Amino acid sequence: MHILPRKTKATAKKGIHLASFLGRLIWLSVLPLIVLSLWLAVDALRSRQAQDRRQAGIIAGNFATDLDQYLAARTGALQMLANSPLIDDEARWGELYREAQSFNGFFGSHVILAGVGQPMRMLFNTRRPFGRELPPLPVPKGRAAAPLAAATGKAVVGDLFTGPVSKTPLCSIAVPVVREGKARYVLLTILESSQLQQRIDQRLLPAGWAISLLDSQGHVIAQRNSPRHQEVRAVDRVEVPSTVAPWKVLVEIPAATYQPPLVKLAIMLALGLVASTLVGVLCGSLAARRVGRGVRSLVHWEPEATCGIVEIEEAHELLEHATAARRESEERQELFIRHAPAALAMFDAQMRYLHVSQRWLRDYGLEGDVVGRSHYEIFPEIPEHWRELHRRGLNGEVLRSEGDRFVRADGAAHWIKWEIRPWRKADGDIGGIVIFSEDITGLKQAQEEIQALNEDLEIRVEQRTAELKAANQELDAFAYAVSHDLRAPLRAMIGFSQALREDCAAQLSDEGLDYLLEISTAGYRMGELVDGLLVLSRSLRGTLERRPIDVSAVAERLVRELERAEPERQVQWQVEAGLEVSGDERMIEVVLTNLLSNAWKYSAGAEPARITVRSEKRDDKRFICVEDNGAGFDMRHSSRLFKPFQRLHRQDEFPGLGIGLATVQRIINRHGGAMEAEGEPGNGASFRFWLPN
């Protein structure tokens, strides 16, 4: 136990006694307590007002969010009706009317279809039977939804007005029906103010508060307040605008809500001040006496004496415990460093070992106790640049390396990963350095072996690539030779079968003539397959030369060629302007020729036939799409689309060889792009390709 020395007369200093100081402190504390209490009262009132205002903002914001969702749902549903193809055919407006009635059944709001002229004539209104004569659409004062939607081409929520049919307060949401960039019609849904009143009545409000929904002209759409709300003066108003409509939600807090808490707070404050002052003086005096005795016993401490204050006695124990804790901390530090799973050593400013881990001793082959010995004495072979690193660390630098080569005195080479970090004493001066190191010789050897394996792998890949290239060239040459050499035998087979049929028809039976016809037909079919094989082998020949290609111009030229070939067909074409890709011009023309020819062929049974060439963005990639409304295909068999000589339709339905799409995919793959296809039987097909820039 550490004993504090007694004060003598020589060491005693003049000053105020502790008891007098504590007494004055108690009385001086009363005045700040009163000031603090007053300030707390004012702050509590302000906090109450701020809390109420935040709550009002939350209530208004929640209702505004609910209102926005309520309006957005109906706007989205109206947009779906506006995009319906039924609206473009006046003969099918009856079907559109029934879909609008479904809208009414789901949302509880009637739907109006109106023209865009002046006045705006109602074409149908789900409040009246379809075909009934209807008055013109009314134009309310302020923000009228229908004219504004027709003018801007965007969905608009209007202000409050009186409906000409229902004669009740209404609001409307108008969505323009835009075709070719112009508004052709306007779809409206009517919201009765009673519907919004029901939603506002469902809101929970503190007593005496009021909430209102106002349009852009300040007219009340729906409102909820106490019976005497209009007789009191509101002290706080919180407005939150709608993000969908030009409306706002207003929450009002009347002054009367603050009066009862204010009176209660004043009474509690007065009582609290009197009680706290009396209790503070009395308790402070008693505590001051005891604290004074305790402090005096702490200054004049004797082991046998007790002051009766646990904290003061514990203070003496803490002094001794602190000394023991410091000693234990040093022991734990030594234990931690010694058994750390890394090569770690701590040095003083003269590079003498202070602490060292077992891993350090094992990695560097050290035996015995090295604490207190110089690092340079143990390793005299350390080169000068390492000594310079130690000096830099002792000067305050933090140094590290991911791998250095170190040669031992016995000639053994090691790779070391290390870090040097200075440590500081209590006064802030550098007391030495800590070195962390790791022998990564095995890792370096493994990296060198991996590098050698990678180099060998690259050589093998280059060899395999060259072999594959040669094999592809031989395969193309073989395909060309086969297609070329088979022509003569096929011509002979077809020619002799025709000659036999013409010259010896009388000597042959009907069955024999049929056999000759089958031989001729098979020969012609074989010739077409040989031609297809030749086209497939030629599709990727030559050097790929990339350049910008005007896809729109190429597609329009190919379309005109198809129309000249079959002028009797009526096909609706749509080619998007400005389509461009980067690729080989000859190969991309082959791609477009095959895709457009397929669209032309497979849309022959559609009335009317439609073929579209457009762009589409998917996953940040711009695709060129060729679409038709023809026969389509079953997606379950889509894996066969791009295989040579594989067809999804019978030959008697749509003639062909089955190499067009295979050729297209080979060209797209050579460009490093991607090819996709979608289809549905009887509803057309869509082929998309993407090429990198």
UniProtKB/TrEMBL annotation:
The chain crosses the membrane at residues 21-42. This is histidine kinase. It comes from the Bacteria. Residues 440-474 form a coiled coil. GO terms for cellular component: membrane. Residues 481-693 form the Histidine kinase domain. PROSITE patterns: HIS_KIN, PAC. The keyword DNA-binding does not apply. It comes from Geomonas terrae. The lineage of its organism: Bacteria, Pseudomonadati, Thermodesulfobacteriota, Desulfuromonadia, Geobacterales. GO terms for biological process: osmosensory signaling via phosphorelay pathway. It catalyses: ATP + protein L-histidine = ADP + protein N-phospho-L-histidine. Gene3D superfamilies: 1.10.287.130, Histidine kinase-like ATPase, C-terminal domain (3.30.565.10), PAS domain (3.30.450.20). Keywords: Coiled coil, Kinase, Membrane, Phosphoprotein, Transferase, Transmembrane, Transmembrane helix. Its EC number is 2.7.13.3. The keyword Transmembrane helix applies. Residues 400-452 form the PAC domain. CDD domains: HisKA, PAS. GO terms for molecular function: phosphorelay response regulator activity; phosphorelay sensor kinase activity; protein kinase activator activity.
